[in-house]
Amino acid sequence: MTPHMQPNSLARSLRRFFAEHMPLARGLSPHTVLSYRDAFALLLRFLAARRGRSVVDLDLSDVDPDGVIAFLDDLETERENCAATRNARLAAIHAFARFVAAQHPEHLELCQRLLAVPFKRARLRVVDYLEQDEVGAMLGATDGTTADGRRDRALLLVMLNTGGRVQEVLDIRPRDLQLVRPLQVLRCVPNDAAGGVRLRCRCLS
Q1: Domain that holds residue 44
Q2: Which pLDDT band, with edges at 50, 70 and 90, does 202 fall under?
Q3: Distance from C-alpha of 188 to C-alpha of 143, rounded to nearest angstrom
Q4: How do residues 58-84 score in pLDDT, each as one tens digit?
Q5: What three-state secondary structure class fits 185?
């Protein structure tokens, strides 16, 4: 792409997809947006190398099913990603294809072919959990005589009592805490599936 060239359909679509559609129209979480961004960074670099050109020279027609399938295979063989990661990357591509189909009807046939690329069957993960004595040992490893130790114990207790993921616990702010009984964490979080937000409540005691 030379300096005097205008952004092409792929560049314009990606900008609107990430800057407007995902965070504003869909209300998806920043974590989902970053995950999709990473998927496209990998995809564009792969397609550019596959076609022997620069990323800035790619257009929508270059994001074709054959290239996407080759990219997904490369994730598993070269990057040694599991099927679940492969499917997460494909989910990002499918979401983009649906967006482009509505914005650029002239590319509908290409989008339909991209959406036909199937997800791969992933082996179900065994749900691991800690026994009571293991929880006690983990909490006992914290040093209650230091500020860092008390912080670590508090974080572990919050995660154990709420079932929150690491990032959810890190996102908790003082305003989210209800410190009168019943002790709770109250947060408005993005609803990636339906858009908008939902109130998530978790007991602390």
Answers
A1: 9-115
A2: low
A3: 33
A4: 999 999 999 999 999 999 999 999 999
A5: strand
Q: Quick one: 33 and 61 in the same domain?
A: yes
Cα–Cα distances (Å) from 119 to 44, 61, 87, 94, 129, in that order, read 20, 22, 6, 10, 28
* Secondary structure element (H or E) that encloses residue 110, with its range: helix 108-115
Q: Which residues contact 168 (CB under 8 A, 6 or more apart)?
A: 162, 187, 189
Which are the contacts of 58, defined by CB distance < 8 A and separation ≥ 6? 10, 44, 47, 48, 51
pLDDT digits (tens, 9 = 90+) for 147-171: 999 988 888 888 887 777 777 777 7
Residue 179 lies in a domain: yes
Q: What is the pTM of this model?
A: 0.64
The distance of Cα 180 from the centroid of its chain, to the nearest Å, equals 34
